[in-house]
């Protein structure tokens, strides 16, 4: 399975995918392209080090958002991935792209959807709101992308207990380490091996009850 990974920042989820392929946790998968909207994203350095082709194209390079959307769609159609992976991607995925790749785009969100998600909930903001609400458990979710924001069918989730001494930064780091970097590679491997289906907005995973998440 050929994947295209879309990034905007540090690329730790991209690194977890690269490492997962190298250590055999992710089988039957190759990264055909890394795309970033942000020329300064350290994720691009990670792609370079791993010898993965990359493209940087910022919305700022275009006169209108529609022109950027069309350019992004063309980049992805040219790459022709079997799966598009949003790994810390802060670009709103255009409807044209979602329609061109139905149930072929997955995203990692740093909370247990439907909590602390939707428009405006990204990065540290997610963890600030979780701590503000005083929840005892947060975590991460991998889901298919549909035309809403964080509303697509849920594939995998992993809980992370919140500590009394947590700050948004410590919580973000622990959720990345203990949840994101585990369930994103696992989801990709399951999809790459034909074990994931979507039926009426619900995800069915072969052997789900035996998974060690
Ligand atoms: C992660 O917390 C991820 O959940 C969110 O973006 C953050 C940065 O990810 N989508 P990365 O280090 O760029 O993979």
């Amino acid at each position: 399975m050929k994947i295209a990974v879309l990034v905007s920042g540090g690329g730790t989820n991209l690194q977890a995918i690269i490492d997962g392929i190298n250590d055999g946790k992710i089988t039957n998968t190759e990264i055909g392209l890394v795309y970033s909207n942000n020329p300064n994203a350290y994720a691009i350095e990670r792609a370079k080090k791993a010898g993965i082709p990359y493209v940087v194209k910022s919305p700022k390079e275009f006169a209108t958002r529609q022109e950027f959307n069309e350019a992004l769609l063309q980049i992805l159609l040219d790459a022709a991935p079997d799966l598009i992976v949003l790994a810390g991607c802060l670009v709103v995925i255009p409807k044209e792209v979602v329609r061109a790749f139905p149930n072929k785009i997955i995203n990692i969100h740093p909370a247990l959807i439907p909590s602390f998600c939707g428009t405006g909930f990204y990065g540290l903001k997610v963890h600030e709101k979780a701590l503000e609400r005083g929840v005892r458990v947060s975590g991460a979710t991998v889901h298919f992308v549909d035309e809403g924001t964080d509303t697509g069918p849920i594939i995998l989730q992993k809980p992370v207990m919140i500590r009394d001494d947590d700050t948004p930064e410590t919580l973000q780091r622990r959720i990345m380490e203990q949840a994101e970097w585990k369930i994103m590679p696992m989801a990709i491997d399951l999809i790459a091996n034909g074990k994931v289906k979507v039926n009426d907005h619900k995800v069915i995973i072969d052997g789900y009850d035996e998974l060690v998440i």
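The first strand starts at residue 2 and ends at 7. Residues 168-192 form the longest helix (25 residues).
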